[in-house]
Design brief:
Distance between the termini: 58 Å
Radius of gyration: 20 Å
Structural class: alpha+beta
Strand order of the largest sheet: 2-1-6-5-4-3-7
CATH architecture of the largest domain: Roll
Length: 296
């Protein structure tokens, strides 16, 4: 048996599981089939000789495919509807059809599917993988390109929304934008006390290799240390949507130099920031500018 044959055999063994993961993430059996097929194309072209946990690797690949699809879906919705949330999954339900709806409702619950449609891509992936498939946040973090702390925060926020405890997505966005804009204003003004007030005491900021080359630190922990790091900075930074979530854009010279992916604590303060400078990674993110002077 060739290596390719062995991989194909293992993939077929995992197909039902991969399809279940994709169905819960995407809310569409048709799109789930497309995601599984794309995952096979990716793994068949990849070097898998050093893979110790084949099942975990395949789950990672299909999850990344689903994340790309969710980002693309969210970007199209944001472009056509501005910053307003679309009606949760109404069009998607029509596309799926009653038989597919029934299958998904049996395994997930239609009410949950409707709520999942309101979540941002990274929130949805973190929640599904952790709460439905028991992956750890250390395993989820590289899939959504966040730190484990940020992955935990995203899943927690998604869980609160699923349980109906967090209010509307729009009100969350408005409040989070106010917090981010207050953070940027305090940073520019060198207001250390103002920064500390906005940050969770255990806040973690991580920068990728490209961000570090631009003068950032690989990791900064704690409100005082983070406030010192950002004091007098953020001149070009503005609040914007990153994969449908409130974050920070840093456009310089006609290109996006940095993107901040932000997770918020239960009390609304900033709990984690992942600073992305890698151009390839930034290109994959769904970035939407927010109109000045509004918080919708």
């Amino acid at each position: 048996m060739t290596e390719h044959d062995a991989l194909a055999r293992e993939f077929e063994r995992s197909r039902d599981h991969l399809r279940a993961v994709a169905s819960r993430m995407l809310g569409s059996t048709t799109e789930a089939d497309d995601a599984v097929q794309e995952a096979w194309l990716r793994v068949s072209r990849a070097d898998n000789g050093a893979v110790d946990n084949m099942g975990g690797w395949l789950t990672t690949v299909v999850s990344r495919v689903c994340l790309d699809m969710l980002r693309s879906r969210r970007a199209r919705a944001e472009e056509s509807l501005g910053t307003h949330e679309p009606e949760p999954s109404a069009g998607r339900r029509h596309e799926r059809g009653p038989e597919a709806d029934a299958l998904l409702a049996d395994s997930v619950g239609m009410a949950l599917l409707v709520v999942l449609e309101t979540l941002a891509p990274a929130e949805r992936v973190a929640f599904v993988l952790h709460d439905m498939f028991d992956l750890t946040f250390e395993e989820i973090a590289p899939i959504i390109q966040r730190s484990p702390v940020a992955a935990r925060q995203l899943a927690s926020r998604a869980r609160r929304r699923v349980r109906g405890a967090s209010g509307s997505v729009e009100s969350d966005r408005r409040r989070q934008r106010e917090i981010v804009e207050a953070f940027l204003a305090a940073a520019r003004a060198g207001d250390v006390e103002g920064l500390i007030a906005i940050l969770d005491p255990d806040v973690v900021v991580r920068g990728d290799a490209a961000a570090v080359k631009l003068g950032g630190e690989p990791e900064v922990v704690g409100a005082a240390a983070v406030a010192a790091e950002f004091k007098g900075r953020a001149r070009a930074a503005v609040a914007g949507l990153v994969d449908g979530e409130i974050g920070v854009h840093v456009p310089v010279g006609g290109r996006m130099l940095l993107v901040f992916q932000i997770a918020f604590a239960d009390d609304g303060r900033i709990a984690a920031m992942d600073v992305v400078g890698n151009p390839t990674t930034i290109e994959r993110l769904a970035l939407v500018s927010l109109p000045a002077g509004t918080h919708s």
